[in-house]
Write a structure and sequence with these properties.
By secondary structure, the protein is of the alpha+beta class. 34% of the residues lie in helices and 27% in strands. The protein contains 13 helices and 17 strands. The strands form four sheets. The protein has a nine-stranded mixed beta sheet, with helices on both faces. A three-stranded mixed beta sheet has the order 3-2-14. A three-stranded antiparallel beta sheet has the order 15-16-17, covered by helices on one side. It starts with a strand and ends with a strand. Residues 3-163 form the Hydroxymethylglutaryl-coenzyme A synthase N-terminal domain.
Length: 386
């Protein structure tokens, strides 16, 4: 039985910050941002969007009547949850009017959890032929203004519908994974911004990749030349390139191909920023849209979540992969975003819902998305459909 990703959708909010403007405001050389970390633009998330609304907007792009009838498992991967008890998947199920006779679960392990959701979804479909699974990777990356991590912020959601005989990517059973208790990144329950040791985390990332790739190669007898592209979790796009360079072969033709494919895979990430759980899968979308692929192309995927957990797994591109996502809609979404100044970005960053139980209504007139957050009332988020 072939199981994998049948359709993919993407959403990011309508505000964007040019990294050159941020560099100038912070007294840095813009090359540090554009070349040093490999980022051109950063998504700016207004209060009218959270992980639930972004997930709904991403899913709306791909949802049809067949999906509504067959989806009976919703797996919501995020480290930006809105409630310590109730799963974001439950809010999403209600907003999208999906079947009440479904399981709706939230999964957390930093940036890795979407991959855990994919693997759980694959196993579920093996046991439940004819069903579909909705996997969401939605996050808002926040490190604080004028912090070392500020330039690796961003936000958005990737929605994936899994099925038998998928149109996009068949996921192999071959994978290797690693978990260690590492304090390279965390966010205490009382904090809205993450704590991170950037240099340490980058080293852990590379160490995890080396471990899972080496064990994958030894266990399943694969060489780097067996792959048409290698995809990486991209908290910033330069990090994945550094990891790729550690395994590039001496064969220049293969090395050039993998490097070129990587550049196409990070193209959309460069213009959105860090998506946490969604970063690897936005990279996959970007490769599908811009890469040199064909039916049977072999992809290697490295997923990493600080704290820390990593996995290397593989997938095979299917013949109708271009029918599983809307390249034009995603590009239009990115192109039509409203640029904001650094001052506007800072104002939006500081504007958040009350944490003391007070009511607040939000002005949604500037947010053109279908699903928006209208505020909070009686300590309950007010989701609206426009």
């Amino acid at each position: 039985m072939t199981i994998g990703i049948d359709k993919m959708g993407f959403y990011t909010p309508h505000y964007v910050l040019d990294m050159t403007d941020l560099a100038n405001a912070r007294g840095d050389d813009p090359a540090k941002y554009h070349i040093g970390i490999g980022q051109s633009e950063m998504a700016v998330v207004p209060p009218t969007q959270d992980v639930v609304t972004m997930a709904a907007n991403a899913t709306e792009q791909i949802l049809d009547a067949t999906d509504r009838d067959q989806i009976d498992l919703i797996l919501f991967a995020t480290e930006s949850g809105i409630d310590n008890s109730k799963a974001g998947a439950v809010y999403l199920q209600h907003l999208l009017k999906l079947s009440e006779h479904s399981r709706a679960i939230e999964i957390k392990q930093a940036c890795y959890s979407a991959t855990a959701a994919l693997q759980l979804g694959k196993d579920y479909l093996k046991a439940h032929p004819g069903k579909r699974v909705l996997v969401i990777a939605a996050d808002i990356a926040r490190y604080g203004l004028e912090t070392a991590g500020e330039i690796t912020q961003g936000g958005g959601a990737v929605a994936m519908i899994m099925s038998e005989n998928p149109r996009i990517l068949a996921i192999s059973d071959e994978s290797t994974y690693l978990t260690r208790d590492v304090m390279d990144f965390w966010r205490p329950v009382y904090a809205t911004e993450a704590r991170v040791d950037g240099h340490y985390s980058a080293n852990v990332y590379t160490d995890f990749f080396t471990d899972v790739w080496t064990r994958f190669s030894d266990t399943y007898h694969h060489e780097i030349s067996d792959f048409d592209a290698m995809l990486f979790h991209l908290p910033f796009s330069k990090m994945g390139l550094k990891a790729l360079r550690t395994v590039l072969p001496e064969d220049q033709t293969v090395a050039d191909k993998l490097t070129s494919q990587f550049d196409q895979a990070r193209l959309w990430n460069r213009h959105v920023g860090n998506l946490y759980t969604g970063s690897l899968y936005l990279s996959l979308l970007s490769l599908l849209a811009h890469g040199d692929l064909h039916a049977g192309s072999q992809l290697g995927l490295f997923s990493y979540g600080s704290g820390a957990e990593g996995e290397f797994f593989t997938g095979t591109i299917q013949a109708d992969y271009q029918e599983g996502f809307d390249k034009a809609a995603i590009q239009t979404l990115l192109d039509k975003r409203t640029p904001v100044s650094v001052a506007e970005y800072e104002r939006i960053f500081k504007d958040s819902l009350p944490t003391n139980g007070q009511d607040r209504a939000l002005d949604i007139s500037h947010d053109s998305a279908k699903y928006v957050l209208g505020g909070i009332k009686n300590e309950q988020r007010q989701y609206l459909v426009q």
